[in-house]
Amino acid sequence: MSRLSLEGGHVLNGTVKVSGAKNAALPILAGTILVEGDSLIENVPNLLDISTMIKMLNSLDVVAEPYPDKNILKIRNNRKIRHIAPYDLVTAMRASFFVAGPILARTGYAKVPMPGGCSIGSRPIDIHLTGFKAMGAEVRMEHGFVELKCPKLKGVRMHLDFPSVGATENIMMAACLADGQTVIENAAREPEIDDLANYLNRAGAQISGIGTSVIVVNGVKRLTGCTHRVIPDRIEAATLLIAGPITGGRVTVEGAIFSHLEPVVMKLREAGCEVIVENDTTITAAFNGPLKAVNFDTMPFPGFPTDAQAQMMTLLTVSAGTSVVEETIFENRFMHAEELKRMGANIKTNGHTAIVTGVPRLSGAEVKITDLRAGAALILAGLNAEGITTVHGMNHLKRGYENLPEKLTSLGAKIL
Ligand code: UD1
Which of 6, 72, 143, 286 is the most buried (most CB within 10 A)? Predict the structure, then answer.
């Protein structure tokens, strides 16, 4: 399915369960390269990006297969790990570069294609490489590959230039099997990093400072198989929560973690939505009278997540007044704005800033998905819009949302 048509104007009501977090499952699967024996990873979302990572593991001779269904993966890591990551998998998904640290730490040598750019920005890997170098790795970039060499990584104190999620994860994984202690200062604090650290600790790693900006890893000789359950996807939860109020309805998301969603919940309340939190895991967002403009900046966690910026902006296109949105994480993450304008939104962008003036309602149009979260935003826009919206490029959405059309249909959306 490369496109999806939906009829807007149906009020969404009901309860929906959130899936496992893509951005936690991906580094955890890369982390299984470090873990000898069998691991069972539960609550893995069934997504295109996950299939890419499974292919990657299999190509390295780490066997990953559904057990007994697609949301549980059994990983068997009993063979000699291969050193070279395939070009097509790394260029298809930037997160494939997460295998670099684990392969290096496990085997002393890794050859991984450079991930290249992507639609939301250039996304370099310099912070990952600086970390590996600090731990003693020789780094060579040739013929489109990054080659990393170091018979035994050494623990070291380092300060990241920016709290990059991927670099924190890659360096933390490599440090698990290093000699001595690694201290990562200015580490990212996203909940997905905590989940990775919890998995690795369960496998025998010694990581402390989890959830803080100083992560301390005491290297161990080996990690061994264990069972781990992936945390719920906070970005999927945020998307589903916005789907309630943007249609004048009320959506309850079950199985979420409130502390991961706090910045989004705060902004939804500021925009005039009613948000009820029960037991920290069940969150309801409801339309509660006219929506109001709000300003927000994307920030590393615990700030407002860049991955929910497009969806929140969509809500603001139908909120009375003028909102200012600052995207501080990625340089090119307003591509959804042009598509939303095709649906009648009033948005002006200038560099990292978008100024959104609310209109009473969007109107259905043919639009194109440019990246994963932009796709979610356009579907939210289609739910609100008068008439029919056809969203092209659904393959982007399948990379990161498990059964989104089905979940929205269960809440009352009319997908044609
Ligand atoms: C992860 C998430 C992605 C999310 C992002 C920010 C996964 C699989 N993906 O991506 O969904 O949008 O965090 O929350 O978990 N940067 C550098 N040099 C580096 C690394 C990063 O300059 O070596 C820059 C990037 O270009 C970007 C910023 O840092 O501008 C944030 O990137 P980073 O936190 O690394 O994001 P990812 O790990 O790629």
Answer: 6
150 labelled catalytic: no
- Convert the pLDDT of each residue in 35-66 to its tens digit: 999 999 999 999 999 999 999 999 999 999 99
| Beta-sheet pairing, 214-218 with 206-208 | antiparallel
Could you tell me the fold of the domain covering 3-19+232-415?
UDP-n-acetylglucosamine1-carboxyvinyl-transferase; Chain (3.65.10)
Q: E-assigned strands of 43-154?
A: 63-66, 73-77, 109-113, 138-142, 145-149
Cα separation of the two ends of the chain: 12
Partners of 224 in the beta sheet?
36
Whether 322 and 315 have beta carbons less than 8 Å apart is answered as no
Same fold yes or no, 3-19+232-415 and 22-226: yes
Is ligand 1 within 6 A of the CB of residue 132? no
Catalytic residue, chosen from 118, 176, 226, 273, is: 118
- Is the bond preceding residue 68 a cis peptide, omega within 30 degrees? yes
| Size of the chain, expressed as the number of residues it contains | 416
